[in-house]
Amino acid sequence: MSATHLRTALWLAGTGVPVLPLRAGKGPMGNCAACQNTACGGRPNMQTPGPCTCPRPCHAWAAATTNPAILTSTPWAGVWRQAAAVGYHPGGAGLTVVDLDHADAVAWAREHLPATRTVATTRGEHWIYQGTMRSVNGVRDGIDLKSTASYTRWRGTGTGTMQPLPDTVRALADKTPASPRATPGTVTVPWLVGGGECRHRSPVYLERGIAMAEQQIIAATSGVHATVYRTFLAVLSAHGRCGCLTETHIGRLFTAAQAKGESPRHCATAWSNARAALGM
């Protein structure tokens, strides 16, 4: 640990930024030892914790908190001792982070996006804007958007004056990556009946579908890449044309996939390929 990570977390929490501990590789840690890798039985969508006694909800961005009593509580003490870094929930702080993963992405941002608060990262930069939006990975080569239902690593206060979230960044969420990787496997699924009309008109039906999709991903013991793609394809086939899916639903699916070892970029690519396969 350390104590340094906890001090940073408490300072951020005091400024209104919800924080969480990250393990090596930037993955989120559970709230206590029983929650690591959802061993407590909770689902990694963070909405339904297992029977653990640590502060709820468990896991990732939904567990990010500004409450110092939770951050210093007995369950979290062990977590902070193992933490490799401090993460935060940008959407919970009213922020959007444009994660630029390499030099070409940084060059593109400098040409097309308004200057704002900038933080150096290992390979590129984080551009931070005031305002929230849907989180989307892979909007362009090397560019992810982190805001609602997402988390990112804290890398310092950066430089420059933070600007309001511009429409040019919001518009990126509607774009498809230019060169998606091929996703293994070929799956045939039915088109949504009704020409775009919502066929279920019940949040219970949608919740059941998302929960089943999460469990299908979590239960995969091999062929995880293909399972994630097939599951995304099935969800989009059933719910992708009626406007019912929200960033929270999508975030739950991505979190389940990442809990099985999928990278954020592969999740974004599989989602984009599934949309393309359905003509969306």
Helix percent band: 25-40%
SSE arrangement, N to C: HEHHHEEHEEEEEEHHHHH
**SS class:** alpha+beta
What count of helical segments does DSSP give? 10
Mean pLDDT: 78
β-strand percent reads: 5-15%
Task: Kindly report how far apart the N and C termini lie.
Answer: 45 Å
Describe the structure using short key phrases.
alpha+beta; 10 helices; 9 strands; 280 residues; 3-stranded antiparallel β-sheet; 6-stranded mixed β-sheet
Task: Summarize the helices and strands and which ones pair or pack.
Elements: H1 3-14, E1 19-22, H2 60-63, H3 68-71, H4 74-82, E2 85-88, E3 95-100, H5 103-112, E4 117-120, E5 125-130, E6 136-140, E7 143-146, E8 152-153, E9 163-164, H6 167-172, H7 203-219, H8 224-239, H9 247-259, H10 264-277
Brief overview, please?
By secondary structure, the chain is α+β, with helices and mostly antiparallel strands.
Characterise the protein shown here:
α8 (about 225-240) crosses α10 (about 265-275). By secondary structure, the chain is of the alpha+beta class. Strands 3, 4, 5, 6, 7 and 9 form a six-stranded mixed sheet that branches. A three-stranded antiparallel sheet has the order 1-2-8. The termini are far apart. It is about 40% helix and about 15% strand. β4 and β5 form a beta hairpin. The chain has helices spanning about 5-15, 60-65, 70, 75-80, 105-110, 165-170, 205-220, 225-240, 245-260, 265-275; strands at about 20, 85-90, 95-100, 115-120, 125-130, 135-140, 145, 150-155, 165. The relative contact order is 0.12. It is globular and about 45 Å long.
